[in-house]
Amino acid sequence: MSWVERDLKVIWHPYTQMKTALPPVxxxxxEGACLFDENGRKYIDAVSSWWVNIHGHSHPYIAQKVAExxxxxxxxxxxxxxxxxxxxxxxxxxxxxxxxxxxxxxxDNGSTAVEVAIxxxxxxxxxxxxxxxxxxxxxxxxxxxxxxxxxxxGRSAFTAAFDSLLFExxxxxxxxxxxxxxxxAQISNLKSNLACFIFEPLVQxxxxxxxxxxxxxxxLMAHCRKxxxxxxxxxxxxxxxxxxxxxxxxxxxxxxxxxxxxxxLTGGTMALGLTTCTQQIFDAFLSDDRLKTLFHxxxxxxxxxxCSAALASMYLFLDDTTEINIKKG
Length: 329
Ligand SMILES: Cc1ncc(COP(=O)(O)O)c(C=O)c1O
What we know:
Aspartate Aminotransferase, domain 2, 34% helix, binds pyridoxal-5'-phosphate
């Protein structure tokens, strides 16, 4: 049996109507920007395998670092234990993020990085005894497929079967010069109830590459900050050079309170999620009262092999030639 025949017997693919879809392309090798099937046919990976791959497939430096890590420590529980690769990665990343990002919380993928960000905000207010429970998001947003991430995403075919179970979110239009004052007024009306505002900075990827200007996002962010609304920048798609600077937030003058990363974090090699936050948010969880703890984690939180891929990717990303190549692109 061919790979395709064997696949069709046992596999259920994501976002795929299995009744009508074309058979999947069996890929057996990747190199640079290209993928190869079992017959040696070459494909340009123009979607960077869902926007995750930033240095090319099977990069030898990342492969070497992952192989080294595998023979040292493949995994360790991350509550009560730590390991050098997770620490070094958090140090390196925080060093290149907006200055207010002080703490890093690991998870497994983009959706979980968003879940963590939402939980941080909602529990921040809960821990402070404030009843802010509403979330503000953009129409057409996409933040992932788990329930919290779906709730803050635009309602679509992706969410249709679950809409009645998703918590209510205030959705606003992308800002522009015509509607910015209206949007600010809308936020003012909701302010005492708003826990946070989550957004994909400058471009909504899955929504259809919908671009909007830094100037108006800055205005919305500044207004939210004035009203005490926490700001979550979902950089899962835009992070690691996708908008010409390391992060889309580097185009802004305002800084978010929380940032979400995945996809390019490991150079596209392995699944890893990361949510960073300010000292102020972290401090709201410090207490002798156990109930103020952030009770969130995954079996593979901060997996050392994924962290080693991310560290290697970061090393390549911060190399001068990468910046030159981005500018050329
Ligand atoms: C902006 C944004 N947030 C979150 C996600 C979800 O990430 P994941 O697919 O790793 O769960 C995506 C995925 O496309 C995304 O583009």
